[in-house]
């Protein structure tokens, strides 16, 4: 039987009084619950073609089960995966949140196959690991607006010079929507409001994340049929998604004439390219995941 266990929030506990370890555990637990809250709809969507039973504990596994496990902070769970190997005929891991690219070889060796977010060089050609998008936040909805009032939109923390430059370059291109935060995930707008904003926006500049090029913005833009404009760092998106239709720039000044100058026909054409590519990509991803699970 194929069973699905969401395990990101199940972090290893300890009684140690070491403040550094306690702090790390607190961070791991925070991120684990964050992934469960914000990524569950995305993961369930890409698992749409797989027939599985959802379980809430590894105690509900039986000998010979195929386990699909969604997890994070793997470095704390080596013994747990060793135990899973004794019960399961196959372990198929969806690894979330490893933005810093830690050494995951010990856990990955315990799995038959791994899908992971936040790709890096060592995984692009790995036969046991497939890189997948981090996806969009749970609850995001395309409002299907007939008219889009914002030329561009940005929400987030301007924590890097690139983001400050983005806001500087586009500040006189109106109308726009901008919501700046001081810290990640603090005083953010609701997913409902984000849905409303993105469904009313034509272009979404997607600067690199703190550690990694990918952020939710790219996929939230695609989900709401906006046009993502990404930084072309190391040709990352072309390596991850060959023949993608994103607009890619080396500096934000290169995007000014596009946002300012494209007419409605050019915008509609690119919107349709992005929408069709994204829908096709998701279907192909669903099919490839199902094929890998059942083979």
Could you walk me through the main structural features you see in this protein, from its secondary elements to its overall organization?
With 295 residues, the protein is of the alpha/beta class. It has two domains: 2-132, Rossmann fold; 150-280, Rossmann fold, CATH 3.40.50.2000. Helix content is 39%, strand content 18%. The protein has helices at residues 19-46, 78-87, 105-108, 121-124, 161-170, 191-198, 216-223, 236-240, 256-261, 264-294, and strands spanning 2-6, 53-55, 66-71, 90-95, 113-116, 129-131, 150-156, 176-180, 201-206, 227-231, 247-249. The strands form two sheets. Strands 2-1-3-4-5-6 form a six-stranded parallel β-sheet. A five-stranded parallel β-sheet has the order 8-7-9-10-11, with helices on both faces. The two termini are 13 Å apart. The relative contact order is 0.12.
């Amino acid at each position: 039987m194929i069973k699905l266990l969401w395990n990101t929030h199940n972090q290893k506990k300890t009684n140690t009084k070491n403040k550094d370890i306690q702090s790390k555990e607190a961070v791991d637990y925070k991120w684990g619950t964050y992934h469960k809250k914000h990524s569950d709809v995305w993961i369930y969507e890409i698992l749409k073609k797989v027939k599985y039973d959802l379980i809430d504990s590894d105690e509900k596994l039986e000998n010979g089960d195929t386990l699909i496990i969604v997890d994070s902070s793997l470095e704390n769970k080596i013994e747990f995966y060793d135990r899973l190997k004794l019960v399961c005929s196959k372990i198929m891991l969806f690894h979330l949140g490893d933005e810093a690219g830690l050494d995951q070889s010990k856990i990955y060796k315990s799995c038959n196959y791994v899908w992971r977010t936040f790709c890096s060089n060592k995984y692009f050609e790995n036969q046991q690991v497939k890189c997948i998008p981090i996806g969009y936040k749970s609850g995001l909805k395309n409002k299907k607006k007939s008219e889009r009032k914002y030329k561009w939109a940005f929400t987030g923390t301007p924590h890097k010079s690139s983001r400050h430059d983005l806001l500087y370059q586009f500040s006189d291109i109106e109308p726009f929507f901008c919501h700046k935060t001081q810290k990640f995930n603090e005083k953010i707008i609701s997913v409902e409001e984000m849905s409303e904003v993105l469904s009313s926006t034509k272009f979404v500049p997607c600067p690199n994340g703190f550690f990694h090029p990918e952020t939710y913005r790219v996929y939230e833009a695609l989900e709401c049929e906006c046009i993502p404009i990404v930084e072309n760092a190391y040709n990352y998106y072309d390596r991850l998604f060959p023949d993608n239709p994103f607009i890619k720039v080396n500096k934000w000044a290169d995007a000014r004439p596009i946002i300012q100058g494209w007419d409605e026909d050019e915008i509609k054409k690119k919107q349709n390219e992005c929408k069709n590519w994204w829908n096709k990509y998701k279907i192909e991803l669903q099919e490839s995941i199902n094929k890998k699970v059942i083979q």
